[in-house]
Amino acid sequence: MTANGPGMDWRGAGFLVIANSVEPAALADYEAWHSFEHVPERLTMPGFLGGRRFVRGRGQERRFLTLYDLDSPDALETPEYRHLLANPTPASRLMRPLMGDFRRFVYRERARFGAGCGSHLGFLRWEAREEGVEDDIAALAALIGQSGIVALRIGGSQETAPHPAFAPDTALSVRHAAAMLSGTDGARLTATLKSIANRLSGPVLERSVHELILAY
Q: How far is CA 201 from the centre of its chain?
């Protein structure tokens, strides 16, 4: 299915989602590094069009999610990006061992709806059945304008070379679909994700809601 609507919140035909935690004692250094060095550095790479940082939880339960808009998933295979991964800056080299629960998902866009960038992001992954994915997309599209949801993007998972600094993620072996829902009310978005999960064509692998920290 091709993209629908202006979708001002989304750019390009692919997106990269990175989730991680960080040692609480390193939080201030992590925030400075990630906001002022790491994401801006990634956005100099060919095919990287924009980025947003999100967080959920507090203290030991704090989890970060970074969303990059890509020209296509092929942006992750360019010589420039592969060189960047293999040659981290001194600050990146220090931070990598302090990051836990590292997961990295790459998607090719199947559809987008709505426009705008809300204060919260819903992340939903499920094992979409090919014969049911169009119905899944229609059900998700109907959420625009409800519960403060202003825009959403749906993609199919793509295989890509693993990050050289982190162990391969077994979750990547499961082909799945993902939806990113941008909204203005975290509590209502959480309730909506729980409700829609029961109407999708396959089992839900993950659902979470994050608060926006910074958009680039």
A: 21
